[in-house]
Predict the structure.
Amino acid sequence: MAQLNACDVQSIKNDSQFMNFPRKGVGMSGKFGASSMVSILAYTTIFLMPSPINVDWAIPARYKRTTVLNRAKAFSAKTIALTFDDGPDPKVTPLILDILKKNNVKATFFVLGKAAKRHPMLLRRIAAEGHAIGNHSWTHGKVKTKDQAVWELIRTNQAVTFATGNCPTVFRPPYGIQDGEYAAQAKAMGMASVLWTAIDGDTVTKSPEKMLAYVGTPKSGEIILCHDGPGKSATPPMVSLLVAKLKKKGYEFATVPELLGTWDKHLALLEQNERVVLKQPSRLIAMQRSESK
């Protein structure tokens, strides 16, 4: 079977895998035909889709179809990525966006498809203000089958694409499950499955100060997990405290795609230097042989 592309309507239409979608969750019974899904998407894209927002969510080839779990080797730049899961939420997300805009900070929002569908204008604001949007599944459930995972990933990517004109390139698996169907199918579609290297502790405390302590002082290249879903009212004040603290220490902020791009350039330079070092012994031997003649 050809490699999947969750935002390529034609590849979905031509792939037999998508010919039988479960109709659970779309208000119908029986099987959901991919041709119907493609027809609806094509119609809404042509007649209803707002103008695309100019963004750059591209990721380097080395990270496509991979799991991003650790910081890049020997990365020393004081650049970190703030990430927010489970939104967008009409109460929490705008407050976070206000803080980020005020401080000229870019972040990445891993959205749930069902929330993205309800709040497309929030997605447009996220993208228009320079942030990246990632896929966090449709329901945040614990899917057990390949078909369920594919269906949720496609629906979520389509919700983001409909709202912004751009398709996510990064995915975060619910509960951070690295080896489940969500992550496997996201990578099969060409996305990077991105975990985190630090957390704000918002699942165990509602105190912004304690959440800030959970983060501590990040290492270079850290990916920080926060949440902007319903009820996460402590996240905005924590973000305000964290941004002020880190800016004072000279940190810069990047979206996940931007950070992966920076890592890629850094690793490419390391690899180039390693190749040069490996060539040195053979050159020395050749010089010694030449001198001994």
Remarks:
- The longest strand covers residues 79-85.
- Residues 43 and 49 are 9 Å apart (CA to CA).
- The radius of gyration is 22 Å.
